[in-house]
Amino acid sequence: MIRGYATDAGLILAAIVLQVVALPARWIENDYANGIYAALARTFVPIANAVPFTIGDGIFLAIVLGLVAYWIVGWRSGRGPRLARAARLALRTAAVIALIVVWFDAAWALNYRRAPIVRRVAFNPARVNPHDVSVFSASIVAGLNATAPLAHAEHPTEAQLEGTLAEAFAPVVRRLGDRYDVVVSRPKRTLFDWWFELAGIGGQWDPFAYETILNAEFLPFERPFAMAHEWGHVAGFGDESDANLIAALTTLRSGDAFIHYSGLFWAYGFLPESDRRALHVSPLVKADLAAARRRFLRRYNPQLYSLQWSVYDKYLRANRVTAGVVSYTLFVQVLVGTPLDRDGLPLMRQPQEVPLSRPGADSGGERSR
C-alpha cells in the first residue's frame, strides 16, 4: 500500500517539477522541438491521418469514464472511514491527472517554451505606427475586394485544398526554425462540435492524439486560415500569436485565390476597428462577413464563451504565454513590423541583434486553439 502511495506521490511531484523547472532554451529548440517532438510528430501524425475517426474523442471519453468508474467501484469496495476512502481515491485521481500532465508536456507542450516568433524575425516596433498600420489595413481591404470574385469562382476539394495549402505552409515553418519536414494533420470533426459552436471555438490541435479538429460549421473560405493555424501548432509553435502569424504568412503568400482570400478575410477581422470603419469592402465581401457572423452567432452562448476563454486565458498564462488570449491578436502587429522577402517570407533577426519584447494588443473574436 505504501509503495502504491509512493508511486502516486512520485507522479504528482514529477508533474509539479516539470512545470516549474527552467529548461535551457537551446535544449528546447534543438533537442526537443527539432528532436524529440519532431520524431513523435513524424511518427504519429501520419497514423492519425490514416484513422477515419477522431482518436481524441475516444481518449477523452475513456479517461473520463474510467475515472468515474474508478470512483464508483473504489467507493463501494473500499474499507475504513469515508474520509480515508475519499483521500485514497483523490490521491490516485491526482496521480492520473499528473500522468496526463507529464504526457501532455512530453508529447507537445514543451513547445510553449520555444522562443516566440517575434524574437526570431526582424520585427521593428517602430514600423507599428498609425501610418503604417493604416497602409497595411488598406492593403488588406483592397486585396479582399479584388480577390473575392476569384475566390468564389473556385471550389477546391478537401484534398486539393490541403495539398495547395501545405505547399505554401512548409517554407514558412522552415524559415521560422523547424529543421525537419513537418507532416501536416488532416482536419477532423469532433463529437463535441456542439461545444465548439456554443463556446466560439474555431479549432484545436490535440497533442494526445496528434490530430487537428476544426469546427464543422466553418464556411469554406474560413477553413484555409483556420487549418494553417492548427498546422502551426503541429509544427511545434505553441503560442497562439505564432500560430496566427504562421496562418497569415501561409495564406497571404499563396498564389491560390481561395487560400489567399481566406488569409485576407481573417486578417480583416483583426484590423483596428477605426480602419475597418473608414475602409469600404465590396458587396461580395460584406455578404461573406455577414454570413460568417450568422454562422458564429447561430449557436453561440456568450456565458459559455466568456467561461471558456477565461479558463483558456489562465491555461495559456500557466504555460508561459504571458499575454493569455490577447496573444491571438498580436500577429497583425508582427506582420506590420516585419519586412518580408519576395516570396512572402519574413526576414530573420541577425544573431547580434537584441531580442525585443512582445508587442501589445487588444483581444476579441473567434479563436482556434
Describe the protein in words.
With 369 residues, the chain is mainly alpha-helical. It folds into two domains: 2-112, no CATH class; 117-368, no CATH class. The chain has helices spanning 2-20, 25-50, 55-77, 82-107, 130-153, 158-176, 193-199, 223-234, 240-253, 257-269, 273-278, 283-297, 302-318, 330-337, and strands spanning 187-188, 201-206, 211-214, 367-368. The protein has a four-stranded mixed sheet with strand order 1-3-2-4. β2 and β3 form a beta hairpin. α8 (223-234) crosses α9 (240-253). The longest helix is centred in the first third of the chain and has 26 residues, at 25-50. The radius of gyration is 22 Å and the shape is globular. The two termini are 41 Å apart. The model is unreliable at 323-327 (pLDDT under 50).
Quick description:
The protein has helices spanning 2-20, 25-50, 55-77, 82-107, 130-153, 158-176, 193-199, 223-234, 240-253, 257-269, 273-278, 283-297, 302-318, 330-337; strands at residues 187-188, 201-206, 211-214, 367-368.
Strand content: under 5%
Physical arrangement of strands within the biggest beta sheet: 1-3-2-4
Determine the mean pLDDT: 89
Poorly predicted residue ranges: 323-327
Please trace the helix and strand order, writing H or E for each element. Answer: HHHHHHEHEEHHHHHHHE
Biggest β-sheet strands, sense, barrel: 4 strands, mixed
Approximately how much helix is present in the residues?
A: 55-70%
Q: Domain count, please report it.
A: 2
From the alpha carbons, calculate the radius of gyration and give it in angstroms: 22 Å
Number of helices: 14
**Terminal Cα separation, in Å?**
41 Å
Task: Describe the global form.
Answer: globular
